[in-house]
Specification:
The protein is of the alpha+beta class and 446 residues long. It has three domains: 90 residues, no CATH class; 110 residues, no CATH class; 207 residues, no CATH class. The protein has twelve helices and eleven strands. A hairpin with a 2-residue loop joins strand 6 and strand 7. Helix 1 crosses helix 2, helix 2 packs parallel to helix 4 and helix 9 crosses helix 12. The longest helix has 26 residues. The chain is globular, with a radius of gyration of 26 Å.
């Protein structure tokens, strides 16, 4: 039977056919990518193009031969590590209970693992500085692995894979090659980080494992790396400078009183109470902090995560409106009290003239406290409409409505809130695997 006469195809025009099932179309498209009949650069071009090809890319990674799949994945990870993380999750994160085949883990595993790590690091850019915890030299963005040696060993039962990350410089003056077969012999001669995880039972396991290792290293360093690149005239830098107990002048370093760039208390203290905020002043502070938090978030994304773009959930929602109700009772108290909130981040939409920075705040002070379930359901309908109107963003969007505190009275509140949003985005992409919330990097409340 001729193919065009089979039920696999549908006639959609003169001499034009379409596969009756999407999966057939995606399978043959994956083969065209693997066989270089379609240039991968035409696929990893922008987020809209990625959306059309994302399941095809997942098939490439799940079923493609290592040599061919690696070529596609190198281009994808270098272009956008957030999009590549989605593909890895779709193709390799489903638990498979089987013993790895000898083909999947035969020969020297380290060179291919190093290729995957190098591609991820190119996409991560500034974040490749996380390797500074291993290398004894400064990490060069042009070649982050220049002074790193990698080793890969699989356990005898083929269920555990151990990766060793070593500084290539040994204390005795010798220098290690890019990969090593017996890393244990160098312990005590150089800095070493060893990571053991269950084997990912797939031919293209290196892409998941390389991301996992790098995410462990980013857990303790991503905040520092992100903050180190922010602009000097931005919200993050201004908050930090104001909060420091010293200042740098022409005379050197001088002590100063830590301050705050946001509207402060306007209720005078008494002998028995600290004073605090009037309802109007706390409202002014809250609006200013929240707008500052959205600006700070964009500063952090632009400086530390420029290739991620709309694969970060909050960025995909912008421009947005922080919409909700705030509850606060003024008066002298023994401590500053955080206002309570019921809110959600409402996507404004993306007309041609809109930019992610066109964010707004819409808060009602001490308004009606509607049923939270009804509040959430109504907003979810709006959110679903936004996702359907922007299908390229849908894989990275997540709806949530919140009730509780935001932290507008904390030290450096805009930065803390922005880091919290970014932390959520990175966790969803598995670029952060720990539970060290950004607030733990700051101290004190106001």
């Amino acid at each position: 039977m001729k193919l065009h006469a089979s039920p696999l195809l549908k006639l959609v025009g003169e001499r034009r056919y379409r596969f009756s099932l999407k999966v057939f179309e995606q399978w043959f498209a994956a083969q065209s990518l693997l066989d270089s009949e379609v240039d991968v650069d035409e696929v990893v071009y922008d987020i809209a193009t990625f959306n059309r090809w994302r399941y095809v890319l997942a098939i490439v990674l799940a079923a493609g031969s290592p040599t061919k799949a690696d070529r596609v994945m190198i281009a994808l990870t270098r272009w956008n590590p957030g999009a590549a993380a989605w593909v890895v999750a779709e193709a390799l994160r489903t638990p498979v209970q089987r013993t790895p085949s000898s083909v999947e883990f035969s020969g020297d595993l380290a060179p291919r693992f190093r290729t995957a790590v190098s591609a991820w690091l190119t996409g991560l850019g500034t974040l490749s500085g996380c390797l500074g915890q291993i290398s004894w030299r400064e990490i060069e963005l042009s070649d982050p692995l220049a002074d790193i040696t990698l080793a890969v060993n699989i356990a005898n039962d083929s269920r555990t894979l151990t990766t060793s990350w070593l500084s290539s410089d040994l204390v005795d003056g010798r220098r290690l090659p890019p990969t090593a077969a017996n890393p244990g012999s160098y312990i005590g001669l150089t800095s070493v980080q060893i990571l053991s995880e269950p084997v990912v039972t797939a031919a293209n396991w290196v892409w998941a494992r390389a991301q996992d290792d790098l995410s462990h290293m980013l857990d303790g360093s991503w905040v520092r790396l992100a903050l180190s690149q922010v602009p000097a005239d931005g919200v993050v830098h201004r908050e930090l400078t104001a909060s420091l107990p010293f200042q740098v002048t022409s005379e050197g370093i001088e002590p100063k009183e830590p301050t705050d760039i946001w509207p402060g208390p306007d209720v005078s203290p008494t002998p028995t109470a600290w004073g605090g905020y009037s309802e109007q002043r706390i409202y002014e502070r809250t609006v200013a902090v929240l707008k500052g938090a959205m600006d700070a978030y964009l500063e952090l994304v632009s400086s530390g995560f420029p290739k991620f773009g709309d694969t970060l959930g909050h960025h995909a929602t912008m421009p947005l409106e922080f919409e909700g109700a705030m509850y606060y009772q003024s008066g002298n108290t023994l401590m500053f009290r955080e206002p309570g909130f019921r809110y959600w981040l409402r996507p404004i939409g993306r007309p041609a003239h809109a930019a992610p920075s066109d964010n707004t705040v819409s808060l009602t002070l001490n308004g009606d406290f509607d049923d939270f379930n009804d509040y959430r359901d109504d907003r979810h309908t709006i959110f679903e409409r936004y996702a359907s109107e922007n299908p390229e963003l849908e894989p990275f969007l997540r709806f949530s409505a919140h009730s509780g505190r935001v932290g507008v009275l904390e030290s450096r509140p805009a930065t803390q809130i922005a880091l919290g949003w970014l932390w959520q985005d990175l966790q969803r992409l598995r670029w952060i695997v720990g539970n060290n919330k950004p607030a733990s990097f700051f101290c004190g409340s106001r």
